[in-house]
Amino acid sequence: MGQGVLSPGFSRVDGVLHADGVSLERLAHEVGTPAYVYSLARIRAQYRRLETALAQAMPDVPHRLHFSVKANSNLAILRTLQECGAGVDIVSAGELYRAREAGFGGTDIVFSGVGKTADELRLALEAPVLFVNVESEGELRLLDEVARAMGAVAPVALRVNPEVTVESPHEYIRTGEKGHKFGIPYDDAEAVARLAHELPNVALVGLDMHIGSQIATWEPYASALARIRPLFESLRVAGIQTLQWLDLGGGLGVTYEAEAPADVDRFAAGVAEAVRGLGVSLVFEPGRFLVAEAGVLLARVLYRKRSGGKEYVITDAGMNDLVRPSHYQAYHRIEPVTTPAGQLVADVVGPVCESGDFLALGREMADVGPGDLLAVHTAGAYGFVMASNYNSRPRPVEVVVDGDRYAVATERERLEDLVRLERAHLQWRSA
Ligand code: LLP
């Protein structure tokens, strides 16, 4: 079910917002609010859109989409993408655990991240993963040691910082500019690659880059690839014949407000052109593109209030449930589930005791009142995964919709869960 829907996602049926075939009004009644709701059909459609564009642009270049688990690590979402044929990009032992639970095999996994521990590297080699994206000389040497102790040879791709300028909506989500903490500085990359080639317990199998997130244009990719390709070629000329992979990060943009969605055909054609004749296999690590627009955060209006000439809409979802507006000043479209008459301009805020607790500021929106339901759009990526228990608020329920069915994918946390790992009565030990 859901697979045949032409334009899957969120639309109105008889005035009520639906996730595919499921009324969000009914759903809120069944599971309560706040609630994250995901359309599986929309995720599948996004996957197919990107995969088809890549397959058409470069039919003879082996490639695979490795979903970036950090964007949405719910097991049901991972499982859906696994069934689509995706691999995963992970950045922690926790994400590795989730990926295995969702059914991904070792070679479906690439392990990225700027600060992996020895234990995480060991787990990566036990899997064993397809390759580890190494971000520093120190990590490379540690991985070599860990692999030696295990009698293994670790497959490694070096994450190189291409040091390009990227336009993205917030500086926190740029990752490939000179001086960033990510990757190996471009000028050091050749020397570290040669070291990787020499170390006995690592095999240099690829190069990796990631330049940022929510990137609207092709140009930064072009500039980055124009720096990575010659490096790849010169390493091969230097005799590193094990080099097979190019891992091309995430970064494809989606629509939050009125942004044009990523031009995946342009992207695919550009990559095809950039790797032509290189004889390489490609990994892509999309996160946001696959899941962002497939999710909403459902919230209920608790109160209306006027203060200092300003209108407030106070909802039962706050910055602990969706931190993007507060943390990145990110815009998320907010729509009432049923359509009240009239418009207003209001700050949409949560119950958390911080003035920075808002979902929208100065927003022109429907004139909603207590009891009305709101859908906060484009919340499928970096939504629930960034939620916290701040103010001792249980994290929301996560629900997946498939056609006209729904299922609870993560139960709402209970109050007992909040203190499950804590002790009021301490067991002291002498040090
Ligand atoms: N691969 C690596 C190594 C990454 O660091 C990231 C995202 C991705 C892939 C996926 O990128 P995407 O396709 O989602 O753009 N929390 C921020 C986004 C941080 C992204 C960090 N890295 C937000 O809410 O906008």
Model description:
The protein is of the alpha/beta class and 431 residues long. The chain folds into two domains: 2-39 and 292-419, Lyase, Ornithine Decarboxylase, Chain A, domain 1, CATH 2.40.37; 41-290, Alanine racemase (TIM Barrel). 29% of the residues lie in helices and 26% in strands. It has twelve helices and 21 strands. It has helices at residues 24-31, 40-57, 75-84, 93-101, 118-126, 137-150, 186-198, 219-237, 264-275, 288-291, 324-328, 415-418; strands spanning 10-13, 16-19, 22-23, 35-39, 63-68, 87-90, 109-111, 131-134, 154-161, 184-185, 202-208, 245-247, 281-284, 295-307, 310-315, 334-336, 343-349, 358-366, 373-376, 397-402, 405-410. Helix 5 links the parallel strand 7 and strand 8 (131-134). Helix 5 (118-126) packs across helix 6 (137-150) and helix 8 packs parallel to helix 9 (264-275). It is globular, with a radius of gyration of 23 Å. It starts with 9 loop residues before the first strand and ends in a 13-residue tail after the last helix. Ligand LLP binds at residues 68, 71, 89, 112, 173, 175, 210, 213, 249-252, 285-289, 324, 328, 381-382.
